[in-house]
Amino acid sequence: MKSTTGKFGKTPHQPSLWTRADALKVHADDPTTTQPLVSANFPVLSDEVFIWDTMPLRDIDGNITSVDGWSVIFTLTADRHPNDPQYLDQNGNYDVIRDWNDRHGRAKMYYWFSRTGKDWKLGGRVMAEGVSPTVREWAGTPILLNEQGEVDLYYTAVTPGATIVKVRGRVVTTEHGVSLVGFEKVKPLFEADGKMYQTEAQNAFWGFRDPWPFRDPKDGKLYMLFEGNVAGERGSHKVGKAEIGDVPPGYEDVGNSRFQTACVGIAVARDEDGDDWEMLPPLLTAVGVNDQTERPHFVFQDGKYYLFTISHTFTYADGVTGPDGVYGFVADSLFGPYVPLNGSGLVLGNPSSQPFQTYSHCVMPNGLVTSFIDSVPTDNTGTQIRIGGTEAPTVGIKIKGQQTFVVAEYDYGYIPPMLDVTLK
Ligand code: FRU
């Protein structure tokens, strides 16, 4: 690959840009890119815990994998506190909204198993208390390594700081269920460097998390995607011609959009085991457009690289907007250039009548999209809501060239395996 010199120095690639012009094409409620309404009568996985980000066990090529016929998912999880005086309102009623909103601060990694790819049974915590070096266990990816059932769990160790880490353990199956063993030694991999990726010192609202390792189907090397922000002091970023794109007359004003600096990061492994990583410049930046491109992941299809990432309405910059949901970009080679799917990037967003119904979508290579239920209105005015903290109905999309289409809806939390591994 030819080296070029640009904003990120002399590197093999320059990031692709999600521009303000692209984002102007985002339209909520287009039926081909809108998640069907989630009913307020949804079932919950558990009355004891909230779950949100869901991480299906998969192999390094991205295939969702069951083990001896058992499907396994990992979830970010937090206890529900219906009887804790701290979460009672003035009338003595459980303030579930506050409990739910506080969950990030006590997120722990749990796992669940199933024979059917749904109806998940709680396995328990992945790591014992005290194993993870920080308070919060944030999102990542569990990778099944081999027929011995070894698993590398990549995740984000947060507070203090934000470090991409991994921990190795093993899946053990019986005819009655699944248990995870090991997961006792957490290895720090890397943190934001302040040169390509923004650090906490540069911006207290920085994002650096959500590792998604994969093998490039074309060059066979081991890489990792992650969420970041573009390096630099908060407020110092420039939203110039390139970031604005080709906008109509009257759309040149960028307001305070210099504060929105999301990017999709990438690192390459220096070793086969993925213990030693080198960060590369981002694949995609959204400076002037959006402040969060979370949980980035790929689907490799038809020789193309489909890059998906989740984002929120509240993280959009001045003058652009879009629904909470999953956005996508496509390229012919790993390092791009990436173009937004459907012209805008929007792949599956919440309907405007239920803007917070789901989040944290993960597009699987079989076209199924899993997410969690956040909150669903229970009356017509939208003032009364029911908190989810559970799996949303799975949605089927079809990916065709530079377009995607919603084509199906399945049961709550339906995550069928794409291949089964028999343990030796
Ligand atoms: C997405 C997310 C992730 C993060 C986790 C924290 O829902 O914001 O980026 O790892 O939730 O709870």
List keywords for this structure.
Tachylectin-2, Chain A, 45% strand, mainly beta, 424 residues, binds beta-D-fructofuranose, 4% helix, globular
Structural class computed from helices and strand pairing: mainly beta
Strand order in space, largest sheet:
3-16-15-14-13
Largest sheet: 5 strands, mixed
Number of strands: 27
Any idea what the CATH architecture is?
5 Propeller
The CATH homologous superfamily corresponds to Glycosyl hydrolase domain, family 43
H and E order: EEEHEEEHEEEEEEEEHEEEEEEEEEEEEE
Tell me the strand percentage band.
over 45%
Radius of gyration: 21 Å
> What count of helical segments does DSSP give?
3
| Distinct bound molecules | beta-D-fructofuranose
Judging from the principal axes of the Cα atoms, what is the shape?
Answer: globular
Per the CATH scheme, the topology name is Tachylectin-2, Chain A
The CATH class turns out to be Mainly Beta
Low-confidence stretches: none
Instruction: State the helicity in percent bands.
Output: under 10%
Domain unit count = 1
Kindly report the average pLDDT value.
96
Family: Belongs to the glycosyl hydrolase 68 family.
Pfam family, one: Glyco_hydro_68
Protein name: levansucrase
Keywords: Carbohydrate metabolism, Glycosyltransferase, Hydrolase, Transferase
